Structures are given as structure tokens and as C-alpha cells.
Amino acid sequence: MLSVLLLLLPAQAEPAAPPWLLGKAFKLPSQYTNQESGYFSLVAGLDDRLYIGAAKYGVNGYLLEFDPRTEKTRLVLDVHEVTRLVGTGFAAQAKIHTRNNVGASGKIYVGSKQGYPEKGEERSLYPGGFVLTHDPKTGKNETFGIAKAQHGIISVMPDEERGVAYISTCSDDRPIDHTHFMVLDLKTKKYTDLGDMEHAYAFIVLDDKGRAYHPVRGGTIARYDPATRKLDKLAVSVDGKPAGKMFTKDDCILNWDSSPDRKTLWAVEMTTNALYRFDLTGDKPVGVTVGPLLDAGAKGRTDCRCLCVGPEGTVWAAVTVHGVADGPRLHLVRFDPKTDKQPRDLGRIGVANPDFTTFVDDKGKPKPWHHTMPVTKDGTRSPWQPMGIAQTRDGNVWVKTIAPYTLIKLTKAQVRK
User: Fold this and answer.
1) 179-227: per-residue pLDDT in tens?
2) DSSP string of 338-379?
3) Counting beta carbons within 10 angstroms of the beta carbon of residue 46, is it exposed (0 to 12), middle (13 to 18) or buried (19 or more)?
């Protein structure tokens, strides 16, 4: 009876102030970025080091390695150096934007991408993005050439067992981004184009049969089966009904990752306050709504640009709530399929060591591109623009935020409370 009464009560205009989740912050080197940014590009390697892409618009893109044991960051891949194709302005390989992925060998797979054209620059200046690998064991870097002329690379998913990697390109056109789903033969370095999926910021995942999934504009999913070399476009259902507007709208931005056994796809839509689970074992992806990510209040708006599945199958998300007092607020959300009945808001992320970097110059003026980590009313420095999340095998969770470019460590004890 009590639960029924609670459902009838009006939603609170403001959610309760969340508890602080204070993590140790590490400043990523500014020399590898000119806007203190790097987007989705974060992954934990098999060596438990973190591999992070950096963007330096008009100049170059870089892959950085952060070692949690030494708490040091170093450059491991310079895109222009590896590709031997040097351009400036819009012709530069301006960033590594891909969600980095790890092959069975331990190699890190990434792709390079265009920046933004300045006034007077034509988009034809950009030659196209490269698929690249870094081998932590040997330090060797390798390029697999340009996937598609004048397109950047937004997603790379390796399947080393079958000798291929799956690619999603990006034209960066608006309102419709042209994103080609491609198969890369890792031995011959040749690409097969499966077609334009027209879905911006696409992530590719594999199921337990080695089939690759790519979202398609309009709410369907393209699935490629390497055994038959067949591409199918599959209708998607959620809670027994056709996928709703959050999946079918033209500006749908999906962040998804598969479970360790690759039988389940976990997904969020960037502006939708919900976690979804899709069964990949059948003929078509069958989805259910797990629950809201958090309580955003009646006026709060959620923005989730970071989701990952940890080594033991726990789903992690960094979620920003806009439109609330003393906001925007960045939260860490957890869903453990073994113990949690719905997503659990673990609290608002703040910085335990606010002196980890400086926010003003020698004259006391705010540094450029340091604006998304303000001090809140109680004096806590708190970021609100996350762009990546990863979990290492020791149970620690790492959130990457931009402006300033920062890595925040949340310990196993904190995230398992």
C-alpha cells in the first residue's frame, strides 16, 4: 500500500543533495591538447594501465598511457609520426576520438579523426582517418591506412581471432552524420564497406558468435556475421514494443558496451534517463528497461556520455544532471546484474585533492579551457563534463573529464559501498 501511495505523490522539483564521492584527480599533460579535451577515448589495457586519446585541433592526435602504479602519464603514440602524413589546420589528424578497445593480444586499437574547419577551410582538406594500434608489450605502433577518404574514425572493434576489426567512420556532416560500417582485414590491411549507417558517434560491439553490431539511424541495428559475410538490419524492441523515439530520433546518441560473455548489450541514450539491457543470443536484439539512471527531480535533465562494462560484468556510467541547484552535478551510477535491482546512484563526483593543478595564471586570471570543474557552494571542486569511464581489474573506477583534461580515480571501496 505504501508503495502505491508513493507512486501517487508528485515528483520533487529538486532531488535530494547527493553525497559526495571524492576521487583523486590527475591532470593529463596539456602539451598534447590545445582545448583540454579527448572525448570517449579511454580504456583499461590488459596490463591495467589506462590508454587515453588526446585532441590537439589543427595540430595532431595522441595516445597517452597512464600507469596507476606510478601515477605517471606518458606519450605512446603520435598519429602523424606513425602515419607519416603530416597536415595542419583541418588537414591534421586532430584527435583520437574512438572509444579505445583492446584485442586478445593486448594491443590497443584506436582511430584518428578530423577536427573542425576554420573559416575559409574546405572539408576536402582532410585526407581521412587512420586505424592504428599500440602494442604495450613491445611499444610498437602500426597503421592500417585510411579507411575512407575524408571520413574520420569514430569506432574500432577488433576480433583478432578472426583476423578482422570493425570500423565506423564519420563524415561529421550535420544534421545527418554519414557513418560507414566497415570490415578491416588485419593481415592485408584492406577494407570492405558495408554501407552508410547514418548514425552519429556509433560504437560497435561483438556477440558471443563473433557477429558485429552497429546502430543505424531510425532505430534499427546492423549485424554482420563473418561466418556468412552477411549483413542484416534488425528491428529493435524494448519492453515488448518497437523501439521508442529515444532510439528512432535522428539525433539519437547511443553509448553501449557488451557483457564479458558478449551475450548482453548494455545501453544508454545520451539524453534519456534510463539503462537498457538487450539480449544478443536470439535472432534479433530484445531489449528491456532496467530503470532510471538516477533521480533527476522534476526539472533535472540527464546527460550520459560515458558507459562501460567492467571486467566482472558491472555496468558503470558517469551521468551529468543539468537544471538543478548548485549544478550541473556529475554522478557515478552503478548497476551490478548480480546484486542490484536497478541502477544505483553512488553520489556526486568531486575532487579530493583540489590542488592537483592550477586554474588561474600568474596574473590571477582563469586559464582557458578550465571551466567545467567549478567550486561548488560548499567549497568542493567538482567536474561536470565527463567523456570517458573505465574499470581496472583491481576494482577501481576511472572517470575522464575535460576542461581541464583530467583523470579521476574512485577506489573499489568507494564504488562498492
Assistant:
1) 999 999 999 999 999 999 999 999 999 999 999 999 999 999 999 999 9
2) TT-SS-EEEEEEEES-GGGS-SB-TTSPBPTT--SS-B-TTS
3) middle
